[in-house]
Amino acid sequence: MEMDELQILNAKYAYIHDDKQVINMHHILVRKSGHRQRQLGCFICFSTLLFLATMFSLKYPSVAIIIWTTLLARFTRKSSFLKYVEKESVVVMPAFGVQLETHYGSGRIIRRFVPVGKIVKPLLNECVTPLTCYWTLSLFLQDEEELMLVFKELRPPVKMLVPIWKSLCALTDSVESSDTYQEEP
């Protein structure tokens, strides 16, 4: 079995394309350049500040307050770690449909499956807010009022979204419209 791999790297994300004979897999990974160190630093600072505030507020700190401080700091660390997204994947299976996966730092994986017959057209949208502008990849589904976001947690750049969009267009036999996206020279 041959594997054709394409990679696009960014400061924040890494795109990996695994093209196997039948299944087409696209992965967007969050690069861990300094995220863990920043999280650990924030955890240590928060724990130290909470501990010092407890020590200075009482002349005789009790063991219960020290234990409470430690537990609260650990809970804060754990809750921020559980929400951390490591990667999101799009698995294109031509005969069946599309499987969308979100992998969290805790090991939890959320999978959503969309049958090929339900997909009308994949859309590459530019979202503009007062503070930022970013691109999203959405699926226009049959009998649904709202678009389904392919990447719910991450906002990868458009150069990483285009190969996934083209793969989804090939799946649904949609014609790639040149007025939708044009690469800049």
Describe the structure.
The protein has 185 residues and is α+β, with helices and mostly antiparallel strands. 31% of the residues lie in helices and 35% in strands. It contains three helices and nine strands. The strands form two sheets. A six-stranded antiparallel β-sheet has the order 1-2-3-4-5-6, covered by helices on one side. The protein has a three-stranded antiparallel β-sheet with strand order 7-8-9, with helices on one face. The longest helix is centred in the first third of the chain and has 23 residues, at 35-57. It is elongated and about 70 Å long. 12% of the residues are buried.
Sheet with the most strands: spatial strand order: 1-2-3-4-5-6
Strand content: 35-45%
What is the radius of gyration? 22 Å
- Globally, the shape reads elongated
Question: Brief overview, please?
Answer:
The protein has three helices and nine strands. It has helices at residues 35-57, 63-82, 158-172; strands spanning 4-9, 13-19, 24-30, 85-93, 97-104, 109-115, 119-128, 133-141, 148-149. 31% of the residues lie in helices and 35% in strands.
List keywords for this structure.
185 residues, 6-stranded antiparallel β-sheet, single chain, elongated, 3-stranded antiparallel β-sheet
List the helices and strands and how they pair.
Layout: E1 4-9, E2 13-19, E3 24-30, H1 35-57, H2 63-82, E4 85-93, E5 97-104, E6 109-115, E7 119-128, E8 133-141, E9 148-149, H3 158-172
